Amino acid sequence: MLSHQLLSQWRKGPTNSVPLEPGHGRGIFCMDIMKDHLVTGSADHGLRCYNLSSMKYEKELYAKRYGHSEWVSSVQHLQNGQIVSAGMDSKICLWDAKGVRCNDLVGHQGSITKLMVDEQSVCISSSYDQTLVIWQLSSMQESRKLFGPHKSAVLDFDWKNSLCVSGDKQGTVVFWDINEGEPVMSKHAHQGAVSKCLLYSDGGNNNLVITAGINDGTLVIHDMRTNKLVNQSQIHKGSINGLAVNLQNFIITGSADATCKITDIVAGFKPVSMMKAKDAVFSIETIYNMTIAGCGDGNILFYDNDSGQCLYGFGAMNKGCVRQMKINDNKTKLVAIGDDFSPMVLQYS
């Protein structure tokens, strides 16, 4: 829960903004934050580590013998301080907690689109090779490969406990039991590529699998327990690029049609609000009753969810779009990355 003072500051605007230097040699495509530690991955093949407490650069994860040979597509922190990254070179790099050295995990035959890691250092990765792979990072071994239903590149997935949901370039959504390594359900849910997958539970009656489409602008919702379709609606006229849940009741989507929309879960997936931007929305974040939209013109827009009003905007990128945003653990900083070479940090304390 945000303090009244901090909530007021988020609604009013940042107290300071800082581009973290040195930046990358090219645009930034992924990042992760754990406590005060930020890591970013770039099209220049490298990763950079920063301390958000001191706002200082720490090190670059790239060397002649170690690292990626293509764009870095995904990165995550492990609980033990290590970092794991994936790239378009089809490999995963497990970096030492100290120094600049990594072990390569090779199992995919195509560009890796995403990876996720749990507290036991189990990792799942998805790829253009139409598969997902489960890795035991503690032993640096591939433990299982998930394959079959996907006949095209797997673009996104989400994972909680034994359930994983993945979506591919042809619109197929697959539910997986990762303990068994088998698909539970496979369905052609979208007319074109799946942009986002999200597993949502309010701890009560609502346990949902939410997927969003690139070509159809459609939000598709399945009941996690019965695997049955409970809602399917075209809510955007463009690609859905951002998907989040706010205050346990609302689904928030951001789209290339230059809007963000709010769907009420409790009210039977009723659309309740629309927020307009001046350019395509490439990424979203949410905090309390606010939606934050990262746009194609480099601006970040902050909206009140109740009124749909834009509270303020901030020019975060000198060129290109805001590709991803994350809020740190204590809710005092928003980090934005995109086509600029440096991460931008907005401070709220």
Question: Could you explain the architecture of this structure?
Answer:
This protein is mainly beta. The chain has a single domain, classed as YVTN repeat-like/Quinoprotein amine dehydrogenase (Methylamine Dehydrogenase, Chain H). Helix content is 3%, strand content 55%. The chain is built from one helix and 32 strands. It has a four-stranded antiparallel beta sheet, with no helix packed on it. A four-stranded antiparallel beta sheet has the order 2-3-4-5, with no helix packed on it. Strands 6-7-8-9 form a four-stranded antiparallel beta sheet, with no helix packed on it. The longest helix is centred in the N-terminal third of the chain and has 9 residues. It is globular and about 55 Å long. The model has no long low-confidence stretch (mean pLDDT 96). Pfam families: WD40 (PF00400). GO terms for molecular function: histone binding. Keywords: WD repeat.
